[in-house]
Amino acid sequence: MPGPDGTLTLSLDRMYTGRAYLRTSGRADRCIYRVFSYTWDPPSRQFNCWPETGEHMTIDEGIPTWRGDVSRVTDYRLTISVAEYDSEQRTELSRYTPHTYTVVFRP
């Protein structure tokens, strides 16, 4: 949880789990694209999209804070954003207002 100033404080060399509870259309041809993104995440070409399996979904995503990844950048932010995509065309259908938090690491 963010502190009163909206900053998240995380420890280095840990694996955190971000959990999102969503209500979706439940259409099999749609998916929810990666909910949690963070500036120290190594580059990837993976299309992380979870199929809409029903009207209610729980998505758990790992958020690692490995020292090697964190040391690559100097600006630490974590964004929570929900976007619905067409599963086959990989095109965005809708996006909801993202929330971005400044992250501070403690040793």
Give a short summary of the structure.
The protein has 107 residues and is mostly beta strands. The chain has one helix and ten strands, in the order E-E-E-E-E-E-H-E-E-E-E.
Structure description:
This protein has one helix spanning 67-70; strands spanning 8-11, 15-23, 30-33, 36-38, 49-51, 56-64, 77-80, 83-86, 91-95, 99-106. The strands form three sheets. Strands 1-10-7-4 form a four-stranded mixed sheet, with no helix packed on it. A four-stranded antiparallel sheet has the order 5-3-8-9, with no helix packed on it. Strands 2-6 form a two-stranded antiparallel ribbon. With 107 residues, it is mainly β. A hairpin with a 4-residue loop joins strand 8 (83-86) and strand 9 (91-95).
